[in-house]
Amino acid sequence: MSDILKGCRDQIDAIDEQLLELINARAALAREIGELKGEGPIYRPEREAQVLRRLLEKNTGPLSAEAVTAIFRSVMSNCRALERELSVAFLGPQGTYSEEAAIKQFGGLNNPKPCMSIDEVFRMVESGNADYAVVPVENSTEGAVGRTLDLLTTTSLHICGEVALPIHHCLLRRRHADGEIRRIYSHAQSLGQCHEWLNLNLGGVERVSTGSNAQAAELAAQDAFAVAIAGRRAADIFGLDILAENIEDDPKNVTRFLVLGKHEAAPSGQDKTSLLLATKNVPGAIVGLLTPLAEHGVDMTELGSRPSKLGIWDYVFFVDIKGHYQDPAVARALHELEQRASMFKILGSYPVAVI
């Protein structure tokens, strides 16, 4: 048995050396491409999406699709860093789901920029103090994140990517704390996502809304009579015990995040376009507004609204469609739609989330 084990380990060592050589060869090519591109953006979400999709098609296991994407995102991240380290802004502090989404999308964060609010996340990129922003836009249980939608109406940034992050909440408490639990700290969205579990297990305990789940974990670390709802990463960062796991009411709980930057993403072959629209407040207006999509065979995947803040009962509409705005059918539909709308803005065309 020991000889067989040694033989297997020798093979692993040999493969590791081959991998190292190949990864360095890839990095050298990536750096050469960067030099050829000149001053253009070094992060190309459409190209990375194409690479990952191709690898997933060829993956025969035993590694899962999630493992393959995580490995190659890390490789691409380190190759990009040879040109320049990207700075990514997200709702902080460290330990939030926004940070997890940023790590997932960028394969790690060499220059993280945690912010205290979603407004600050937008401002960091708009002012040039960060290269990209990662912001939550909707949850499968609690719906849209209103503040993100409101800021999208005025920002000059482009949506250049999206991240779908499964959300699994934990109930956290300061280590060695015991006795009565008097407060539950968490973000309002997370409190809503765990509403029934809390009613069943901690009914009557005060629920305190915080700016982020990581902030909730930080507060619980200082309060012997409190618990927090947050992720495993927050437990590690703030030294908390995990009292219960997967306490979300919906086991398929997913939050969608947007990646924002100053440049647009080129077509990747599997894209989505987000639009901001408005029309006159008359019967049938929204149906007439969206007719060009159906006429040109463009699939609408989402339709939501927000108060425009310009008048009582006046709304703007957020629309997601399949395809890139440069695709011929999409371009024709959007041209006609623009003629009908009182407000028309392409928020971005970007690759559909990979895993």
From TrEMBL:
PROSITE patterns (alphabetical): ACT (PS51671), CHORISMATE_MUT_2 (PS51168), PREPHENATE_DEHYDR_1 (PS00857), PREPHENATE_DEHYDR_3 (PS51171)
Keyword vocabulary terms for this entry: Amino-acid biosynthesis, Aromatic amino acid biosynthesis, Coiled coil, Cytoplasm, Isomerase, Lyase, Multifunctional enzyme, Phenylalanine biosynthesis
Record's catalysed reaction(s): prephenate + H(+) = 3-phenylpyruvate + CO2 + H2O; chorismate = prephenate
One GO CC term, this protein: cytoplasm
Domain ACT: 274-351
Domain Chorismate mutase: from-to ranges: 1-87
NCBIfam families given in the database record: CM_P2, PRK11898.1
Protein name (database record): Bifunctional chorismate mutase/prephenate dehydratase
Species of the source: Methylobacillus flagellatus (strain ATCC 51484 / DSM 6875 / VKM B-1610 / KT)
